[in-house]
Specification:
Length: 379
């Protein structure tokens, strides 16, 4: 058996390092791989001469903000002003951090559903907030809204939601959104809604955006990412949308944090999302990836898939294979099989004994087939 470099996992900061090591098939990361030159690549080349070397708006080029406004209105019926309610950011993480820094004060409580994106908790703590953890209910990782009601008090300032959900692939339904809307009605609570995988949703399910619900939209910050929707790995651009009274506070933070996103790329994005064909088929593309990967895993390995309805992540149980902790399994897969995955416990604040690991199936079919070939001998 081939032996690979020894990584002291589960330090998630090593994901990028793993990707650089020859021979390792990295399904641990948060990026996607696409074949060939995309339409957005071509648009970037066309826009390079237009704005290269010129000053960039800290809050995003108006052309892109206008297209985002039109897109949200056409899909969900809510109108955000391009001037003062939409801001382009250097990735979705910057939007999250700025929103929490702007809206959460010392001692404010923030409800966080676990498992959760690794970036939420540090942002809460660094800004003096107090995280309040609520576990999603297995086996389908749904929210028990009665748990939420029990946790709310006068100090509750924010509820963070994520749909489609990383790492479980769970998707909120209409009832979830209506319950959330009812819970925050008449309170000081704001919602931070991570909708980064808005269009990567499967099996005919409709995305439930906070912008679909007027009362929710009035008290929410919507955060999204162009990276997944527009099929441009490596170009980290996102945006946030919120009522003007909230956005002015977010922009105060963003003005300190950065100088804006590369202007030619913003102009290319504006053209790209202006044509709905650029993003309307991305869900079908990734559903094909999911189905291909899970069919191979089901037929050739002893891993058991947890159903996923969105994102490009797939949770797998290994309880039929061994009784090791997830971090130990992840390290073995890297060192002995050259396959990178993410431990479920990296998305939980305390120690988890759940026999689950996460794979990113946004890879070429050749890579996915090679991964399954290697995993056949894992025992």
């Amino acid at each position: 058996m081939m032996m690979y470099p020894k990584f002291n996992f589960p330090d998630t900061g090593l994901v990028d390092e793993m990707a650089m090591v020859p021979g390792i098939l990295n399904l641990a990361g948060n990026y996607s791989e696409f074949d060939g030159i995309t339409k957005l690549d071509e648009l970037l080349l066309e826009n390079m001469p237009k704005r290269t070397g010129q000053n960039v708006s800290v809050f995003g080029e108006i052309q892109l903000r206008e297209q985002v406004s039109k897109k949200i209105t056409s899909l969900y019926g809510h109108n955000y002003s391009a001037n003062n309610e939409i801001t382009v950011t250097q990735g979705s993480n910057q939007a999250f951090y700025a929103s929490i820094a702007a809206l959460v004060g010392e001692g404010d409580e923030v409800i966080l559903f676990e498992p959760a994106n690794e970036t939420y908790l540090p942002a809460i703590i660094l800004n003096g907030g107090k995280p309040v953890f609520i576990s999603l209910k297995e086996p389908d990782f749904h929210v028990d809204w009665e748990d939420v009601v029990c946790m709310i008090n006068a100090n509750t300032r924010m509820i963070i939601i994520n749909t489609p959900h990383n790492p479980t692939g769970m998707v909120f339904n209409e009832l979830d959104m209506l319950r959330l809307q009812k819970i925050i009605n008449g309170t000081r609570i704001v919602v931070l809604s991570d909708e980064s995988f808005e269009h990567i949703i499967f099996d005919g399910i409709s995305h439930q955006s906070v912008s679909l619900y007027p009362k929710l939209a009035e008290k929410s910050v919507l955060v999204n990412s162009f990276s997944h929707t527009c099929q441009v790995p490596g170009w980290n651009v996102g945006y946030c949308a919120a009522p003007a009274s909230m956005m002015v506070e977010i922009r105060r933070v963003l003005k300190i944090m950065g100088t804006g996103v590369f202007a030619p790329f913003q102009l290319a994005l504006a053209e790209y999302i202006g044509d709905r064909e650029g993003y309307q088929n991305v869900g079908k593309y990734f559903q094909g990836k999911r189905d291909y990967f899970t069919s191979l895993m089901d037929s050739l390995t002893r891993f058991v898939a947890v159903p996923t309805f969105g994102t490009f992540y797939q949770l797998y149980s290994y309880k039929e294979i061994c009784e090791e902790r997830d971090k130990s399994v992840v390290q073995r897969l890297i060192n002995e099989f050259g396959v990178g995955s993410a431990p479920f416990s990296s998305f939980i604040h305390d120690q988890s004994k759940k026999p689950l690991i996460r794979f990113n199936f946004a890879q070429s079919n050749d890579i996915l087939a090679k991964v399954v070939e290697r995993l056949q001998s894992f025992h």
